[in-house]
Write a structure and sequence with these properties.
By secondary structure, the chain is an all-alpha fold. The chain has one domain: Ferritin, core subunit, four-helix bundle (Ferritin), CATH 1.20.1260. 76% of the residues lie in helices and 0% in strands. It has five helices and no strands. Helix 1 runs antiparallel to helix 3 and helix 3 runs antiparallel to helix 4. It is elongated, with a radius of gyration of 17 Å. It starts with a helix and ends in a 6-residue tail after the last helix. Bound molecules: fe (ii) ion (2 copies).
């Protein structure tokens, strides 16, 4: 089935949204790196890379469906943070926003009977559950150490071992 123009627009918006997240995370990574938190920075660089990969997946899907790709305007990322908790809370807010958008696209696909888009979107709904759990878990642990340097160093060390996708 040819790609409905409303779906094409929604998928293109999602490409922009994923790139927006990628840039926001790159800025967070740079902030953490400059703040001497190499493990957290590594985790965030990986996260930025992963979001760019999501954008590519949406691009490939639009093209596979015979649609046209048009990337929109990317927001200037937030660059000032109080502490690592603040950084990861901002990342969680981003993920929750993305989840809401993917749910909206899923609803749109259902409402216009675009069954071909559902399996693709399913993957992203599942991905968002994982992302929110991962980022939310880090927020919780960071809150628990309450700024204690030993606790922060432990979390930093652990996040530094994150593998690439
Ligand atoms: Fe994503
Ligand atoms: Fe994400």
């Amino acid at each position: 089935m040819a790609l409905d123009e409303r779906m094409e627009a929604a998928l293109n918006d999602q490409v922009t949204c994923e790139l927006d997240a990628s840039l926001a995370y790159l800025q967070m990574a740079a902030h953490l790196d400059g703040d001497d938190r190499p493990g957290m920075a590594h985790w965030m660089y990986e996260q930025s890379h992963e979001e760019a990969g999501h954008a590519k997946q949406f691009i490939e899907f639009v093209l596979a469906r015979g649609g046209r790709v048009e990337i929109g305007r990317i927001q200037t990322p937030v660059s000032k943070f109080d502490d690592p908790v603040h950084v990861f809370e901002e990342a969680l807010r981003h993920e929750q926003h993305v989840t809401g958008r993917i749910r909206d696209i899923y609803r749109l696909a259902t409402s216009i009977d675009d069954l071909e888009s559902l399996p693709f979107l399913h993957g992203f709904l599942a991905e968002q559950v994982e992302e929110e759990a991962a980022v939310g878990g880090i927020c919780e642990r960071l809150r628990r150490v309450q700024g204690d340097e030993v606790g922060l160093a432990l979390i930093d060390h652990e996040l530094g071992s994150r593998g690439g996708e």
